[in-house]
């Protein structure tokens, strides 16, 4: 089929260029055939090749730009997903514990009453202990910052033991 190169160039007819792309890529013209085409034919062929190269460069740039946009969108979506996962984890943690999950510096957590029976869970790191006494010791060892100065004071039983030891 005859291709009106000037019309294709004026209207930037991408479909017409795509239709000719396979024909140009699969054609094998010898040097003799190019000479027989003469001035007008070889000029048209050269112009067609130029437009095809321009088209391929345009497609390459478009694909690169679109790829960069998609990569940026994926990064934004990934960060949003990470934020949502943290938020869901915080909500899940709040639902697991009887008390809200304390955040560092927000407020102090009260120690469980001594002698309380049954398993006890740390509301900061969610470890499970066999009794409230073990949990209290855990709070003093691992989460002293959440208890403020109250944790710095010795327990009454320990203080009484020290007084007895000093008296003997």
From TrEMBL:
Keyword terms: Cell projection, Coiled coil, Cytoplasm, Cytoskeleton, Metal-binding, Zinc, Zinc-finger
Location within or outside the cell: Cytoplasm, Cytoskeleton, Cilium basal body; Cytoplasm, Cytoskeleton, Microtubule organizing center, Centrosome, Centriole
PROSITE patterns reported in the protein's UniProt record: ZINC_FINGER_C2H2_1, ZINC_FINGER_C2H2_2
Domain of life: Eukaryota
Primary localization: cytoplasm
Entry GO CC: centriole; cytoplasm
MF annotations from Gene Ontology: zinc ion binding
C2H2-type domain mapped to chain residues: 120-151
Family to which the UniProt record says this protein belongs: Belongs to the DZIP C2H2-type zinc-finger protein family.
Name of protein: C2H2-type domain-containing protein
Organism in which the protein naturally occurs: Emiliania huxleyi
């Amino acid at each position: 089929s005859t291709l009106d190169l000037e019309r294709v160039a004026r209207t930037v007819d991408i479909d017409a260029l795509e239709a000719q792309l396979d024909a140009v890529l699969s054609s094998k013209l010898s040097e003799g055939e190019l000479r027989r085409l003469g001035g007008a034919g070889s000029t048209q062929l050269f112009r067609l090749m130029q437009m095809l190269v321009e088209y391929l460069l345009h497609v390459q740039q478009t694909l690169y730009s679109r790829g960069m946009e998609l990569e940026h969108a994926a990064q934004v979506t990934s960060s949003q997903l990470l934020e949502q996962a943290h938020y869901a984890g915080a909500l899940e943690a709040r639902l697991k514990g009887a008390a809200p999950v304390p955040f560092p510096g927000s407020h102090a957590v009260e120690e469980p009453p001594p002698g309380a029976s049954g398993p006890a869970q740390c509301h900061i790191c969610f470890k499970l202990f066999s009794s409230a006494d073990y949990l209290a010791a855990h709070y003093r060892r691992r989460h002293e910052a959440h208890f403020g100065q109250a944790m710095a004071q010795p327990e009454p039983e320990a203080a009484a033991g020290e007084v007895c030891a000093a008296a003997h």
